[in-house]
């Protein structure tokens, strides 16, 4: 049995249900990518599994125990989460930011122990941020800033790392920089990584396991080859696409070329349908 999984998980914002009866397992020691259209509930599921929000019903299990019944510090020693677009206080340096990752291991407001300092040093070195040790985070480029936040999560010393759209707003080079770092952490440190990813081809190339989600429901899960199927892409994303093997890795690549028929109907629907779409967009915004 995997270390982290859910059973009959229901998640809601007020009276609005986002996820119903979710049963999902996260393979230990692998990279898992949650994929789906905007507003599908990916980020909501990630937050619930990382204990950032409490489900309406059901359970998230970590090492056989309900994650929401465990002490916060105990959970923080097992998993770390990097939310979307985190913002550091003005003037905070990289080393100061990374030090925050040691809070779950400290007692009261004591100074850093030798172990804490070593964890901070190692995390900064692992993420290639040595030259920016004393640089304010708000003076870094987007890719450097994201690596600094990942270093903070690493300093937390957890085996499980959650990331919510870690490549959002980054250019292609910085996206690859972050994804290769996560791949390195998985290979060299055996970290279990769970991330929400928008780019299907990034998910297929860097993840071992993919979970395709639509309206809070898992449509398909498995290896990239098992998930990147034409029928799955039609149902989850509303697209027609060609699937070809990556010439370097052999994993499937998605080349979308047209909206699926149902997506066409949705785009050209009546006024009531358009109103419903607007409501769906508002719901999507609230569920991110």
TrEMBL record:
<keyword id="KW-0472">Membrane</keyword>
<dbReference type="InterPro" id="IPR017871">
    <property type="entry name" value="ABC_transporter-like_CS"/>
</dbReference>
<keyword id="KW-0408">Iron</keyword>
<keyword id="KW-1003">Cell membrane</keyword>
<feature type="domain" description="ABC transporter">
    <location>
        <begin position="4"/>
        <end position="240"/>
    </location>
</feature>
<dbReference type="InterPro" id="IPR003439">
    <property type="entry name" value="ABC_transporter-like_ATP-bd"/>
</dbReference>
<dbReference type="InterPro" id="IPR051535">
    <property type="entry name" value="Siderophore_ABC-ATPase"/>
</dbReference>
<protein>
    <submittedName>
        <fullName>ABC transporter ATP-binding protein</fullName>
    </submittedName>
</protein>
<dbReference type="InterPro" id="IPR003593">
    <property type="entry name" value="AAA+_ATPase"/>
</dbReference>
<dbReference type="GO" id="GO:0005524">
    <property type="term" value="F:ATP binding"/>
</dbReference>
<keyword id="KW-0547">Nucleotide-binding</keyword>
<keyword id="KW-0406">Ion transport</keyword>
<dbReference type="Pfam" id="PF00005">
    <property type="entry name" value="ABC_tran"/>
</dbReference>
<feature type="region of interest" description="Disordered">
    <location>
        <begin position="264"/>
        <end position="288"/>
    </location>
</feature>
<keyword id="KW-0813">Transport</keyword>
<dbReference type="InterPro" id="IPR027417">
    <property type="entry name" value="P-loop_NTPase"/>
</dbReference>
<feature type="compositionally biased region" description="Low complexity">
    <location>
        <begin position="266"/>
        <end position="281"/>
    </location>
</feature>
<keyword id="KW-0410">Iron transport</keyword>
<keyword id="KW-0067">ATP-binding</keyword>
């Amino acid at each position: 049995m995997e270390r982290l999984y859910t059973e009959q998980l229901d998640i809601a914002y007020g009276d609005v249900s986002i996820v119903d009866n979710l049963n999902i397992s996260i393979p230990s020691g692998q990279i898992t990518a949650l994929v789906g259209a905007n507003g599908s509930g990916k980020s909501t599921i990630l937050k619930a599994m990382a204990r950032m929000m409490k489900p309406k019903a059901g359970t998230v299990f970590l090492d056989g125990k309900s994650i929401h019944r465990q002490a916060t510090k105990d959970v923080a020693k097992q998993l770390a989460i990097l939310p979307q677009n985190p913002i550091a206080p003005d003037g905070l340096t990289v080393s100061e930011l990374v030090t925050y990752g040691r809070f779950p291991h400290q007692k009261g407001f004591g100074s850093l122990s030798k172990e804490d300092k070593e964890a901070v040093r190692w995390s900064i070195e692992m993420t290639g941020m040595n030259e920016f040790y004393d640089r304010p985070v708000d003076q870094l480029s987007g890719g450097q800033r994201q690596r600094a936040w990942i270093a903070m999560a690493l300093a937390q010393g957890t085996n499980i790392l959650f990331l919510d759209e870690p490549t959002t707003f980054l250019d292609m080079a910085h996206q690859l920089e972050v994804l290769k770092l996560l791949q390195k952490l998985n290979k060299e440190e055996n970290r279990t990584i769970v991330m929400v990813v928008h780019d299907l081809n990034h998910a297929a190339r860097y993840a071992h396991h993919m979970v395709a989600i639509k309206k809070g429901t898992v449509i398909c899960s498995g290896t990239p080859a098992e998930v990147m199927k034409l029928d799955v892409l039609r149902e989850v994303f509303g697209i027609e696409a060609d699937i070809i093997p990556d010439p370097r890795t052999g994993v499937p690549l998605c080349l979308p070329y047209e909206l699926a028929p149902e997506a066409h109907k949705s785009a050209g629907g009546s006024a009531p349908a358009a109103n419903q779409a607007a409501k769906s967009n508002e719901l999507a915004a609230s569920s991110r």
